[in-house]
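This section describes the prediction task in plain terms. A model, or a person checking by hand, is given the sequence of a single protein chain and must write out its three-dimensional structure as a string of tokens. No templates, partner chains or ligands are provided. The sample shown here is typical of the held-out split.
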Amino acid sequence: MPRSVNKVASRARKKKVFKLAKGSFGRRKNVWTVAKNSVEKGLGYAYRDRKAKKRSFRGMWIQRINAAARLHGMSYSEFMGKIHKSGIEINRKTLADLAMNNPEAFKAVVEKVK
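The expected answer:
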């Protein structure tokens, strides 16, 4: 009796991987073992970097708030300490946006916490 293999399912799996490998260079896009390894590695990086992206954005917001606070004679830590003490509930993302796009509103926040 001949060996039975599920060709339909294995073809579907390979098509899925080759679709994800599209745009890669060289054998990464059309050789099964190379493409599979490349796609697995890429998906791992994608998962890791979705978390890292959040960390890097927070760092950028802190730099922007610090630069704007120093224009008004305050350090970042001093500013954030006073903002928490005064009970103003504005997150870093919003503060950074105010600092970049609306400096007079940021100045009003600084005057409020001084």
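For orientation: The chain is about 75% helix and 0% strand.
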